[in-house]
Each structure stands twice: as structure tokens, then as C-alpha cells.
Amino acid sequence: QVSQCPNAIVRVPVVPDIMFVRRLSCQVATVSLLVHTHALRMPFARGSTVRMAASNAATLPKQETGISALLDAQPEADGRGTLVAVLDTGCDLAAAGLQETSDGRPKYVDFIDCTGGGDIDTSKKVKPAEDGTLEGLSGRTLKLGGWAEGVDEFRLGALRLYGLGSMPTSVLRRLKEERKAAFVMQHQAAVSAVQRELDGLADGAPKEAKRDLELRLEQYDAMMDGYTDHGPLLDVLLWRQQPSGVWQAVIDVDGEGDLSAAEPMAPYAHARQVGDMGHGSALTYCVQVYDEGERLSVVTDAGSHGTHVAGIVAANFALDSALNGVAPGAQVLACKIGDGRLGSAETGTGLVRALIAAKARGCDLINLSYGEPAWQHDSGRVAETFTAAVRKWGMCVFTSAGNDGPALSSLGSPGALSAPICVGAYVSPAMMAEQYSMLPVADVSGASYSFSSRGPTPDGFMPSLCAPGGAIAPVPRHALQGKAQYHGTSMSSPNACGVAACVLSALKQAGLSVGPIELRRALENSARPIESEPFAQGAGLINAPAALAYALEHHGKPAQDLPFALSVPSRGGARGIYLRDAAELQGPLTFGVLVQPLFEHAATRTAAEVEELLSLELQLQLGPTAPWVTTPASMVLLSAKERGGQTFTVRLDPSTLPPGAHFAAVQAVDATDPARGPLFSLPITVVIPHAISPPPPLGALTPAQLETARDETAAPPALSFPLTLQGGVPVRRFISVPESAEWAKVTLRSGRMANGPHAVLLHAVPSARGDLPNTACQTKRMLQLRELSEEVVQLPVRGGATLELCMQLSWLANPAPATLDAE
Question: What is the rounded distance in angstroms from the CA atom of residue 569 to the CA atom of residue 790?
Fold first, then answer.
């Protein structure tokens, strides 16, 4: 099992607050969700909202990706007809904007707790008394209502509100604070009453009366000192309604035993009943029943993250479409993988359960805004299930890249897996102004967020594309606010997923059936590059109209829906070529690349499947995107089942490259139809490090030189360079570390700053060899640089490896350029 957390950074109005998330390397902060009163159908808001200003599209970005243009041209291509599984902390089923689709269907088709955190044992069976009561597991006498008529057997369960495994920690904390405040108020009133009575005793009052009052005060003090709140104990009843056979449940949310006015709840998909857990919690829940009634699942969310993600994908505000999510017509299957017992972290078991649930309900798309440090790509049951979800079950999976940038090789998992579409986070100038109230600046460009994790992985793999990574979107009712601004790759992934839902919706309305491989090819080959380096953006910013046009033009062409696996056998089956250490640049730079078409056939192939293998013959042009890469001009790609794939050769000549990171790709294009773009692409990253001259061996020194070498005050080997930082643009320096070095000292000296101090993020990664995730060895510092100041940072290094020093100027407070000297 692997622990995972959501990939988002929470912001409360303007100032960065909490890195909400992930299994990658962010700090964890959970805001959670819980549940309902007597199962009544509550009049929750249907997209209502109170607004004080005209909306701006940049608060939930849609113009950047062309969704606004697509919906202007095709209003009904808004996701309707698609089903999106949101694998997250769970969702508030009563949140505004998440009640109905744009065409009037229920927004949520179901809500499933894949963690087991809300499971209640309901194996005990009892019969009601003749007077319409029964004794609950709490020991209370439960008064039943008219709904119990004709029921001759009930199953009993109980839950302690504070012990409900799916309760969000933020709600638990708030409830305890509020209940204690109420207790203190009552306690103080009782103490004051006794004190007044004591003060009012006449001088001749009996001593016993005075002593009695004093003892009462002592008992009140002891009661306050020993205050403990274990939370309400709630009874649960479960039975099977006849003759329908539908399971029904009642929870004594008030904890008083009177259930006469309760409304029984069926599993959510049957009647879409939800309620509030009460006690001021504002926590929404539904129920599910498993194991023929042996187990009742009280389903709540474990934090606000999942509702926010679902809102980005598919929120629908009927009264103001500007507030909508990207695909307001899409329906949502909410799968809770964030376990409240683990602080909303996730387990591999829960994730696999969620993927299986998405398959069972026929989902088109999946969004997973969770992450952790990458370790071994495409290995283990979780990776295998992702691959099956895409290639066998026909679902397109979107996942966040992670929030551990801006240094290279910080990409997390599952973004580092081959099957999902890995999405980086982009911020546009309009988003900077509207979501962050950025100070005015003459010239600022859109860019990847600094936190967005970068490729390549140690084996050379890159992110797929990028999408807007910040949004103001709905959050659960228990957060006591209707919406919140979060940013992170947790927000970019659902934005891209929503774009895909709209593209898929338009394709379905055109009568086309497009699978996940063909959809991914359309999205990647139509993306718009927005930066000079691809390490965060992949193919570029997702582009809805261009993706739809590409899919319509190229649907049905040979191998358009066929995936390919690329590997470099001489580098342990790496999915790309990544040369970073100086020693790697000294040997032969010729590599064989294995290409394998990935067919999904039955164990015993049908005649059609055999024909598919026999007929595959692609005339491909091989083209490098940089002059320092050489490849054959072409190849004829067959199914190559006998040989396990086909190979071609790549030769690199980095001798003329300056120090820094250099990217190229070998793209395979259909020679008969180049407009289709690459059918597959091999990513190549070469890092040319700056060299630091190591000290000569002690045996080669003269006595005078030896004495100087032994002088601990002598300056160690050093490298210095000037830096010019632009807002939002990472500046990288790579240094080949001497074999004997263990630590480095980085000194930054600032120059004149006409616009005031600057915030500069320093991210240092000492190695990217794949034997350790970057989170286990990196150094991160947010430095506040003032005019003509000096900052010194000590950081660990790895002898013989290449150290990356990445610095990025924050655009939030002062985006004006800054100059530094680094040593």
C-alpha cells in the first residue's frame, strides 16, 4: 500500500496558505466533509450563489484552453453524454453548482467510499417490540416511525461521531471547539449562579450551607479540569424493504432515540438521498450497503479537495454560466480514495477499488489529483490497473504532475506512469490578475507555475501537456464558504479532464466513438506550446477547438487508436534518453530504440484480430527536432510479433552544446499523411554541466602547496556566474560535483532593486539517477532578497553527480526583473 495525498495548494483569498496535497512532496492539510441528519431530502441549493461583482472567466479558466470558443460554436458540446470518475477525497453531494447537469440530469451518478473508513458492522439482527420500539446498541430505547410498519427484523449498528473513520479532521476540530465553547458557557453560568448564592449568604447562615456551596464550586472546577468530549454515540438501523427489496437505513443523528420523524435512506444511486450529520457540522453524507446487509457504509468526503476538483470539471450554475466548470454537462462518479483515518491520505487498495468501480459504471474519463514521489515506473498492481483502465477498459485517465518543481526530474507518480495523461500547471496573465490580485506590471507572460513538477523522470519520460492550475470553485458546505481559490497541479488535471469531456461530447454528438488512445493523440498533437522548455508543459497547453478538429479529421486512419511502447534496452528499458552526469557524455552516444505496437487482443485471437496484426504496415518518417540528434530518415513499422518489436538507432552529438539543459525529440510521422503529427515520440534530454576543477592529489603537491591545501581557511573550489531573473521563468545552472564533495555553499548577492525586494525560490536537486526520489535529497528555500543583500544556503551534494541549482522569481508580489550574482 502506498500513502498518497491530493496535489493542490490552498489559497485563502490572496496569500499562499497551504500546500494541500499529494503523495509527491507537498505538505498535507485536510479540510474535510461529513454527513447528514435524519435522511430527509434536504432543500440544498441548486446552483444558487451570492455575488458582489461581475464574474471574470479567469477565476475558473476556460478562455486559455479554447473551451469558451468551443462552447460558443457548439453550446451542447459541454460534456453532456460523458461520465467522469473523480478519484479524490470524496465530494459534498449538496454543494452548490454540483446538483444537476446543464441538460437537467443528476450531477452525481453515485458516491462510493473505496477506503472502508465509514463502514459500520450491521450483522446483529433484532425484532421490534410490540409498542414500536427497540433497544439500540447505544442502550437507548429507539422510538420508530410509521416507516417501520411491516418490518419484522432490523439490523443494528452504531457509530461514534468523532470516531467515524471518514470524518474530516477540520470538521472534527471545529466540532470539538464549538462543543467545548458551549460547555464552557454553561459551566460559567453554573459557577456564577453558585457564586452568587454563596455571596448572598447571610452572616449567620449555617456552616453546612456554606460548605455545600463551596464543595459545588470545587466540583465544577474539577469538571472543567477533567473535560473530555468523546462525541455523540449514534444508533443505526438497517433493513430490507419489502416487496421492493431495497435496503433502507436510518441514523439517529440527534442521538436522542426518537426516530419517529426520520426519513429512511436507500443507497445513493437508488434515490439520491443525502443529509446532514447535524451537531452544527454541515457535513453531507449518503449510504451504501454491502455483503447482504452485513455492512453499512456511511459515505462522506475526507476533505474539500475532491469537491473543488469536481467543480472544476463539471460545476453547473444555471443562473450564471460564467461560474460553470469546464464541462457543466458532464456527470460525475465520486470515488473516495482519501482515507479520513489517514488524514485524507490514500492507499493502493483504495485506488484499485476506485478504478474497478469506474469500470463497472462505464466511465469515459477519470481524474486523479493525487500524487507521491516517483520510484519505479510502470511497476506494481496500481500501475498495472492504470494500464488496464486505459488499454483494456477504455477510460482516459488524467492525473496531476505534482507540486514539487521547478527543478528537473521532480515529476511524481502516477504522473510518471505511462498510461495516464500527466498534466502540468499553467498560469495566464489574466489568472495572475483575477485570482491573485497581482500588482500591475508592464509586461508579464503566461508560464508554468513554479511548483509544477518537471520532467524528465530518471528514465527520460516527460509530462503529457499542461492546463490552467488555479481556480475559484465550489467547496463543501462544512468549509462554511461556498467557494475557495486553490492552486496546484490538482487543479490543472481536472481542467484538462473537463476539456476532454467537452471534446468527447462533441465527438459523440457527431456519431464518432473515440477511445482513450485516439483521444490522447488528439489532445497532445493539437496542444499549443507556451514556453521555450517542455519540462513542465509537455506538448503544450491543451487546446479544445484544435483537439476536436484534429480528432474529426483523423478519426479512423490506420493506427490512429494504436498505442506504441518505446524503450532503450541499453539503458534498462528507459522510455527516453536522459544524460545528465558528465561521465555519461564521455562514452558512445549511439542508442538502439525498441518500438512495440501494443495490441489488446483476446488470449485466443479472433479472425479480425489476426487480420489487424497482418495488415499493420506503417510508412514512417523519423525526424529529430534538434540538429545534435541524428536518426534514420524512415522506417517501415510492422506488428513485429515474432521479434517483439522493431528497432531504430539514435546518435547524439552534444559536443557543441553549451552548459545547460537541452531537449529534443525523435518524432515518427506517417509519411503518407504528415498532418496527423507524431504517432509516437522519443524524448531526449541532455544536460551539459559546468565543471569545477577538483584539487590536485595531495601526493603531487610540493611541501608549500601541501601546507596550503591543509589550511582549513583556504577557499574550496568555486564557480560563479551572473543571473537575470524574470518573473515565472526558471533559471537553471548544472554543476558537475567533484567526487570527494559532500556539501556545497551557495551565495546569492543582489544588486539594485528599483521596485523593492524580491522573493526567489531556490530549488537544488543533487542527483537524478533514480535510486532516490528527489524529495529524499533536495533542498528548497524561498528567499526574500533585499537590495544589495547576501543570502547563503548550505546544501548536500553527491560526489560525481550533477547538481541542479534552479532559481525562479515569484511574480506574485514583485514580478519586475532582478539581477543576482551566484557563487
Answer: 47
CB-facing half-sphere around the CA of 141: CA atoms within 13 A: 5
In the annotation, is 490 catalytic?
Answer: yes
103 catalytically annotated:
no
* Number of CB atoms found within 10 A of residue 525's CB: 19
| Edge-to-edge order in the sheet of strand 275-276 | 119-121, 295-299, 284-290, 275-276
Lowest mean pLDDT among 416-425, 510-519, 694-703: 694-703
Residue of 450, 490, 639, 750 marked active site: 490
Lowest mean pLDDT among 85-99, 297-311, 490-504, 718-732: 718-732
Q: Output the DSSP codes for 253-296.
A: TTSSSB-TT---B--HHHH---EE--TT---EEEEEEEGGGTEE
Render pLDDT for 103-157 as a digit per residue (tens, 0 to 9): 999 999 999 999 999 999 999 999 999 999 999 999 999 999 999 999 999 999 9
- Please report which residue ranges of 282-438 form alpha helices under DSSP H: 305-314, 348-360, 381-391, 429-436
Sign of CA dihedral 579, 583, 585, 587: negative
Residue 272, phi-psi category: left (phi > 0), alpha (psi -120 to 50), beta (remainder): left
* Predicted pLDDT of residue 15: 27
Distances in Å between the Cα of 360 and the Cα atoms of 353, 357, 381, 602, 704 are: 10, 5, 18, 20, 78
Catalytic residue among 25, 36, 38, 88: 88
57 pLDDT above the threshold of 90? no
Is the pLDDT at 33 greater than 50, yes or no? no
Q: What is the DSSP string of 411-469?
A: -EETTTSSSSEEEEEEE-HHHHHHHH-PPP-S----EE-TTS-----TT-----EEEE-
Angle, helices 348-360 vs 381-391, to 10°: value is 20
Q: Contact 761/780 with Cβ under 8 angstroms?
A: yes
Q: Is 305 a catalytic residue?
A: yes
Confidence (pTM): 0.90
Count other Cβ atoms within 10 Å, centred on residue 241: 14
Q: Is 242 helix (H, G, I), strand (E, B) or coil?
A: coil
Catalytic residue among 279, 305, 478, 662: 305
3 state DSSP class of 323: helix
Q: Bridge-partner residues for 121, per DSSP?
A: 295
**275-276 vs 247-251, strand pairing mode:** unpaired
The reported pLDDT for the residue numbered 213 is: 93
* Averaged pLDDT, 706-719: 62
- Which of 491, 457, 449 lies closest to 374, judged by CA? 457
Mean pLDDT throughout 453-476? 96
CA 354 to chain centre: 15
